[in-house]
Amino acid sequence: MYGLVRDAAAPAPLHQWAVGEIFSCFRAHLAQHRTGRAWMAPIDVVLDRERGLVVQPDVVVVLNERQHIVSDRVWGAPDLVVEVMSPRVRIGSVEERLEWFGRYGVRECWLVHPLEPRIEVITFGTSPIVSRTFTRDDVVLSPVLEHLSVTPVSILTSY
Q1: Three-state secondary-structure class, residue 72
Q2: pLDDT tens across 39-88, in order?
Q3: Using an 8 Å Cβ cutoff, are 62 and 73 in contact?
């Protein structure tokens, strides 16, 4: 079987607002430190060309040393991806996406829960995979975005 297309209704306003806030935070941080670039969905990330495995995470970060994977799409694993969780599942399971991200070389994934506010940071490439949860006023630690200083409350509660 080659490729799989899943279609879903558009995300809710809260979801899109959270995506915009996270993108803005990442974009400012990356510009200040001149370490990479961020994009927000829709943007195709081709994890496996032969299998037709293309995903569209809510936010994608590629650091400077890997910018060569970005052209008309992102051709390979970004350094960091963000999935904003919605009350209703839109496309596929989170577990399936996490398995793909880990298998194809994504270094870090943020699962963002805007209603709580809570951010899970999953670090791949370590054994075992490291998952840390940050709530309300915890400073989120990101191995990919060094020197980032944000809390879930600071980026998720002005809606």
Answers
A1: coil
A2: 999 999 999 999 999 999 999 999 999 999 999 999 999 999 999 998 76
A3: no
Q: What share of the chain is helix, strand, coil (3-state, %, to 5)?
A: 25, 25, 45
Among positive and negative, which fits the CA dihedral 147, 153, 158, 159? positive
The set of residues, in sequence order, having a beta carbon less than 8 Å from that of 63 and lying 6+ positions away, is 35, 36, 79, 144
Residues 119/112, Cβ–Cβ less than 8 Å: yes
This prediction's pTM: 0.90
Q: Using alpha carbons only, give the angle 41, 148, 35 rounded to the nearest 5 degrees.
A: 70
CB of 121 within 8 A of CB of 108? yes
Three-state DSSP class for residue 76: coil
* pLDDT tens digits for range 104-115: 999 999 999 999
* Domains defined along the chain, listed by start: 13-156 (3.90.1570.10)
